[in-house]
Amino acid sequence: MSEDHLSSRCAVIGNPIAHSRSPQIHQWFAHQFELRIDYQRIQAEDNSCEKASFEKTVTQFFSAGGRGLNITSPFKQQAFAMADIQSPAACQAESGNTLWLENGQLHVTSTDGAGWYQHIQHLGVELKDCNILILGAGGAGRVIFEYLKELGTVASIVLANRSQEKLATMHFPNNTFGVTLDSIPNQDYDLIINALPTGWQNSFPEVSVPVTETTAAYDLNYAEGAKSFQEWFLAAGGQQKNFYDGWGMLVCQAALSFEIWWAQKPQTAELINHPELILSR
């Protein structure tokens, strides 16, 4: 295998991973710059030894000359922990979705928060003075929570998780709250964000939250992965026009990773507006 080919190798690691469209998205970006890249899916073992399996997979990938890795559920915290250099965005949430080697050191950052916000801006959704509920305190949910805290323009943020364990290590300043899914405050929310990793299993937990005709909902999953949350939202009284899935976030966060690895900033609007260019393949 030639050195040029090795330096073009990128991948996404997760479990499950077969549904990921990251390879197609990165190939779409590469075509914009006439780059030839090899972007694969890698499924790390998901068992009692998953941490060791994940770290071994990452080490082997870069030892073989890989250029960059995207990380998805359930390995974002492990990616953060094993890196030598951790970006401020990654440190805020103790989570990372982008790895690369630089001067022999493993770097990690999270592009989830900035990618989500870029998509929100693309959609024209106003966040100023909003009351926001985030469901799920895992990697992406925690990143978005921290990003919104840093933004400083929303009225309140409630972060709801299945268990108290992850919330216990987090900081909740004024007008931010950490609760379990069964103790969400009974109040109106302008935006409900689903960051629970349940989409691809087509299951959504029982959640009691007021939903009105003006409530907006955003699922970090996309396409079929967003179906269960979408059905819950519509059954609770939400409007289809106010529901958004995470396709645009996926595209935007991927573009930020691509820029880190290749020093090229891809255009995203066409792919955000026309997911069928990839999803129909």
Description:
The chain has 281 residues and is an alpha/beta fold. The protein folds into two domains: 3-110 and 248-279, Rossmann fold (3-Layer(aba) Sandwich), CATH 3.40.50.10860; 113-245, NAD(P)-binding Rossmann-like Domain (Rossmann fold), CATH 3.40.50.720. 38% of the residues lie in helices and 20% in strands. It contains twelve helices and twelve strands. It has helices at residues 3-7, 22-32, 50-63, 76-82, 88-93, 112-123, 139-151, 165-168, 227-235, 247-262, 269-273, 276-279, and strands spanning 9-14, 38-43, 68-71, 85-86, 98-102, 105-109, 131-135, 156-161, 176-180, 191-194, 216-219, 243-245. The strands form two sheets. The protein has a six-stranded mixed beta sheet with strand order 2-1-3-5-6-4, sandwiched between helices. The protein has a six-stranded parallel beta sheet with strand order 9-8-7-10-11-12, with helices on both faces. β7, α7 (139-151) and β8 (156-161) form a beta-alpha-beta unit. It is globular and about 50 Å long.
